Description:
two-stranded antiparallel ribbon; alpha/beta; 8 helices; globular; 13 strands; Spore Coat Polysaccharide Biosynthesis Protein SpsA, Chain A
Amino acid sequence: xxxxxxxxxxxxxxxxxxxxxxxxxxxxxxxxxxxxxxxxxxxxxxxxxxxxxxxxxxxxxxxxxxxxxxxxxxxxxxxxxxxxxxxxxxxxxxxxxxxxxxxxxxxxxxxxxxxxxxxxxxxxxxxxxxxxxxxxxxxxxxxxxxxxxxxxxxxxxxxxxxxxxxxxxxxxxxxxxxxxxxxxxxxxxxxxxxxxxxxxxxxxxxxxxxxxxxxxxxxxxxxxxxxxxxxxxxxxxxxxxxxxxxxxxxxxxxxxxxxxxxxxxxxxxxxxxxxxxxxxxxx
Length: 283
């Protein structure tokens, strides 16, 4: 097995159905095994519904879908640890270059998302400056041309901020984190829903640890960004290959206004005319 796609779910089967619909139209999806990790919080009764979707959706006729319900409540961060661990375990002959890719239950991939991720995997797998590959970009600024490689359309690298949507990482990166993985909650107010997150005073490395307390049910994204990345960059597309539709019932979206301001992509690959010349400014 050489291509693994990990998806996490917990309480939004209607959104998950839209993810499966989009994946059905992705170039190359027939080459993948999909691992659907279903979290258990207060919604264990939804597991049969997710299993039914995996069994009966038209995508199941194209590729293998494995439903993987958690055995017990673990908390958000620890559920994610289990999901990635099980995704890497699907490789029959493990190598440091193994590269599972990941969608949450509200990430809608574009038609060429898989091919973009595969291209970036081959292009950057041995680059020590790269931490991960993401398929999402908010497109709220026009970035300098010199920040991009002209290949697979426009692709650039940047220091990670908050973009773990439709992303992938290599086993050698996972090996750095898997035994020390943790979730967090803030031990002091760092930002509020109305804040500009780009301006939030969030430290990195050991200083980051002074701002947080470990919490199994807390955020796993902030430790990735501010602790495990260690100054390395992410690869990302100038035109997003993913749209996020999770403006309601998410774990960390405060409201639809916040989602529109920080998560929703205004230009992405499924638009009628996605071009690198489009500029989208903050509103």
